[in-house]
Each structure stands twice: as C-alpha cells, then as structure tokens.
Amino acid sequence: MALKKHPSQSLRDDFLAWQCRIRQIAMRTDAGRPSPGMTPRVLSASGEVVTGRLTVLILPKEPDESTSFFRFQVMRSADPRDIYQRGLAYLQADYFQEPHTFSDRVTAVLDRTSRLAATLLAEKTCVLEFEQFSQLYRIPCVVRRLGAGEHAREASLWHNRIFNPSLSDDALVLEFRPDWAKTVASV
User: Fold this and answer.
1) Is 121 inside a domain boundary?
2) Domain span at residue 19?
C-alpha cells in the first residue's frame, strides 16, 4: 500500500469523514463494538509498536449536548443494559452525520494505573496508525493528559460510561493532537 502526503486540510477532513462513516457502521451493524479503524496501533516516534490496539474516541467540537445526554442516561438508571441501549440508540441516529462538527483531536480513556498511559505521557508523542477498508492513516500526535473539568475529558468519560457505567472518576483521559503536516495516508 503506497502512502502519500496530502494537503493538511484535505487530509484532516477526509480522516474525519472516514471516522464518522466507520463509527456509524459500527453503531448500526455491530452494536457499537469498536472496529479496526477505531482502534489504531500506537507506534513510538521511532516506529516501534507501543500497543497493537487502542480504542479512541472522536468528539464533537462542542460536546456539551452529547455529554449531558450521556451523563443523564448513566445517572437515571442502575441497569447497565438500559444505559447501553439508550446510548447506542443515540449514537446510531444522526450523531456521526456531520463530520465537520467533530474535533480532529482524539481521546482514549485508560485506567489510572495503565503502563501504556505512563509510557505515552513520558514520551509526549506517538504515531497513531488507523487502518480499515483499504485505507490507512499514519498520524503523528502530541499526547497530553486531560485535566479535571476539561470538556473533552468529561465528554470522553461520559461517552465511555454508556458502555461501562462503572468507569472510575479517576480514569486517565489522554488527548492525541494530530500533526497533519507530517501525516501520511493511503486514501
């Protein structure tokens, strides 16, 4: 598969459209189970595999509405199945319809004792390698830990609680900020 550099803006827009498409498929046909394109390989800056799969989220640029919805669903019921079904219905509807409403920064929620998180935070950079449907994006990223009260952290935690209502408040949320100028892709 030949990898090419593309204009940064176009590449970012193509990536977000692709992510929305594969996530919509996963929600509608596979009950929300993460597909390969939602779980990139994580490489060090030197190209060594740090982990073979990391489930990441894409978030709306303005996540308040979805965060409120997810929080309400988790808080209103003690039944994990009910929470999951309501959250999945929300994600299956039009949530992923407008790629331009999503941020290009992705997040991952990890246990506070995660060695992977410690490694990524120590390195401060990595490469996320997304691949599915004959498309591949190799995206260099700056990694940082999101702090309490940051909108992206809250959005990530409440989104993940739809699938795991017992997710701890002290979970680590990492943000990956892409460097589109150094990204290569086969699209």
Assistant:
1) yes
2) 8-27+40-186
